[in-house]
Specification:
Among the domains are: about 90 residues, Fumarase/aspartase (N-terminal domain) (Fumarase C, Chain B, domain 1, Orthogonal Bundle); about 220 residues, Fumarase C, Chain A, domain 2. Helix 9 links the parallel strand 3 and strand 4. The mean pLDDT is about 95. The strands form 3 sheets. It has a two-stranded antiparallel sheet. A two-stranded parallel sheet has the order 3-4. A two-stranded antiparallel sheet has the order 5-6. The protein is mainly alpha-helical. The two termini are about 45 Å apart. The longest helix is centred in the first third of the chain and has 37 residues. Helices cover about 60% and strands about 5% of the residues. Helix 8 runs antiparallel to helix 11 and helix 8 packs parallel to helix 20.
Length: about 475
C-alpha cells in the first residue's frame, strides 16, 4: 500500500517496520473524534475560501457517510493502514476523489492526533466523572442506612475511638469528591484546541483556529504552535488524577477485604461480587475488591510509562509521543470498570451491625471518653489519661470492659467516679457527643450526606439532568 507521506522517501518500508510504526490497532478507537475534527477543519477551509465551499461540503458529507457506516458495521477499519488518520483520508479520497485530498490542507498529523486525543479525553473525563458520581450515590445510600451503626474507628489498624459506619463511608465520599474536582479541573486544560498548529510552526494559510475550536466545543486554542503539537501535560495530569482516584478506591477496597474476613465479619459481600475456591468449598473470596486494589498499580504504571516517555523529548513532535495513547486508553478503561464494579459491590453488600458493635466494645475505644469524664470532674487531662490507662489494663487482666467494671473498682483509682461514669462510657453516648463539625454523631453525618446530595455531580442528578 502506498504511503500518504511518500515523497522524500519512497515509502517502501519493510513489513516489520510497518507493524512497529503503525498505531491503527489502538488509535482506531478515536474514529469518532477524528471525523468530528476533520469535519470542523473542512468547514473552516470552506468558510475561509482556502478550498471551494462545495468541495468542503463534499468532504463533510463524505465523512458523515463514513461515520454512519462505521457505526453500523457496514464499513470496517483496515488494519493495514498506518493509523486512523490515514485510514480516514484514504477512504474519503477513494469515495470523493481530489476533494478528499484537499482536507489535509493547513494541518498536519501532528496537530490532528493532538486534537483527536484531546477530544477523546474530554469525553472520557466526562464519563468517568459520571461513574464516580454513581459510586458516590451508592456509598451515600449505605451511609444513610447506617448513619447510627457503631463500629470501631482505627488508627495504626488498632481500635481507636467509636465512630459510625455512616461517618466512615462518608470519608470515602469526600475523597471521591476531590477526585471529581481534580478531573474537572484537568478538563479545563484538556479543552484547548491544537488544530491549526500544523507540524510545529503554524501554516501560511489564513486559517481561523478559533472557528474550529468553537465548532468543536473547545474553550480556546493552544497559543503556541510548537507547544500545541508537543504538549502532553493534559494526558499526564489526567493520568495523575486517575492514579489518585485509584489510590482512593484501593484504600476502600482494602477495608472491604478486611471487613469481609472472618476476623472482622463487619460485612458480607454479595455472591454477585465474590468468587469461590477451586479446592476449599467454604471460601467466599472478595476478588472484585482485590482486583481493584491490584489494578491501581496498573494505572500507576500508565502514568509512569508516559512520564518516562516524555522526559527527554526536545521540541517539537517526536514519534515517541505515539506512546501516549495506549496508557491513556488503558487507564480510562480500567478506572471506568473499577468504578462500575465498586458501585455494584457497595450497593449489594450486607452489614453486620452486631459484630461491629461487639468489636467496638471489646476494643476499649471509649477510654478517651473515660478520661474526658474525669477532666469534667476537675482533673487535669494528663492525670485523667494515666488513670484511664490503668483502668483499661485492669479490665484486660480481669476480662471486663469499661461498661461492666464495678463502681468500686473505678473508685480504687479515683474518688471522682460515680454512677454517671456508665453513661459517659456508653458507646451510643460517646458517639452522640462527637458534635464538632464533620464529626461522627448522627446529626453531623446527616449534614455531610445532605451537603453531598445538594451537589450537581451525583450520578442520579446527572441522569435526571440528561
Amino acid at each position: 500500500m502506498a504511503k500518504l507521506w511518500a515523497g522524500r522517501t519512497a515509502g517502501d518500508t519493510s513489513k516489520l517496520a510497518d507493524d512497529f510504526n503503525a498505531s491503527i490497532s489502538f488509535d482506531s478507537r478515536m474514529y469518532r473524534q477524528d471525523i468530528a475534527g476533520s469535519m470542523a477543519h473542512a468547514a473552516m477551509l470552506g468558510a475561509r475560501g482556502i478550498i471551494p465551499q462545495e468541495e468542503a461540503q463534499r468532504v463533510m458529507d463524505g465523512l458523515q457517510d463514513i461515520l454512519g457506516e462505521l457505526e453500523s458495521g457496514k464499513l470496517a477499519i483496515d488494519p493495514d493502514c498506518e493509523d486512523i488518520h490515514m485510514f480516514m483520508e484514504q477512504v474519503l479520497t477513494q469515495r470523493i476523489g481530489d476533494a478528499g485530498k484537499r482536507l489535509h490542507t493547513a494541518r498536519s498529523r501532528n496537530d490532528q492526533v493532538a486534537l483527536d486525543l484531546r477530544l477523546y479525553m474530554r469525553d472520557e473525563i466526562d464519563e468517568i466523572v459520571g461513574k464516580a458520581g454513581r459510586l458516590i450515590d451508592a456509598v451515600i445510600e449505605k451511609a444513610q442506612a447506617y448513619k447510627a451503626a457503631i463500629m470501631p474507628g482505627y488508627t495504626h489498624l488498632q481500635r481507636a475511638q467509636p465512630v459510625t459506619l455512616g461517618q466512615h463511608l462518608m470519608a470515602y465520599v469526600m475523597m471521591l469528591l476531590r477526585d471529581i474536582d481534580r478531573l474537572r479541573d484537568a478538563r479545563v486544560r484538556v479543552n484547548l484546541s491544537p488544530i491549526g498548529c500544523c507540524a510545529l510552526a503554524g501554516t501560511t494559510y489564513a486559517t481561523d483556529r478559533a472557528f474550529e475550536a468553537e465548532r468543536l466545543g473547545f474553550d480556546g486554542i493552544c497559543l503556541n504552535s510548537m507547544d500545541g503539537v508537543s504538549d502532553r501535560d493534559f494526558c499526564l495530569e489526567t493520568l495523575s488524577d486517575l492514579s489518585i482516584l485509584m489510590m482512593h478506591l484501593s484504600r476502600f477496597a482494602e477495608e472491604i477485604i478486611l471487613w469481609s474476613s472472618w476476623e472482622f465479619k463487619f460485612i458480607e459481600l454479595s455472591d454477585a461480587f465474590t468468587t469461590g475456591s477451586s479446592i476449599m468449598p467454604q471460601k467466599k473470596n472478595p476478588d472484585m475488591a482485590e482486583l481493584v486494589r491490584g489494578k491501581t498499580g496498573r494505572v500507576y504504571g500508565d502514568l509512569m510509562g508516559l512520564l518516562t516517555a516524555m522526559k527527554g523529548l526536545p521540541l517539537a513532535y517526536n514519534k515517541d509521543m505515539q506512546e501516549d495513547k495506549e496508557p491513556v486508553f488503558d487507564a480510562c478503561d480500567t478506572v471506568k470498570m473499577c468504578l462500575e464494579v465498586f458501585a455494584g459491590m457497595i450497593s449489594t453488600m450486607a452489614v453486620n451491625t452486631a459484630n461491629m458493635r461487639r468489636a467496638a466494645q471489646a476494643g476499649f475505644i471509649n477510654a478517651t471518653d473515660l478520661a474526658d469524664y474525669l477532666v469534667r470532674k476537675g482533673l487535669p487531662f494528663r492525670e485523667a489519661y494515666r488513670i484511664s490507662g490503668r483502668i483499661v489494663a485492669e479490665c484486660i487482666a480481669t476480662g471486663r470492659v469499661l461498661e461492666t467494671l464495678p463502681l468500686d473498682a473505678y473508685r480504687k483509682h479515683s474518688p471522682l467516679f460515680d454512677e454517671d461514669v456508665y453513661q459517659a462510657v456508653d458507646l451510643d453516648v460517646c458517639v452522640s457527643k462527637r458534635i464538632s463539625a464533620g464529626g461522627t454523631c448522627v446529626a453531623e453525618v446527616e449534614k455531610q450526606i445532605a451537603y453531598v446530595k445538594s451537589l450537581p455531580l451525583c450520578g442520579k442528578k446527572q441522569e435526571e439532568a440528561e
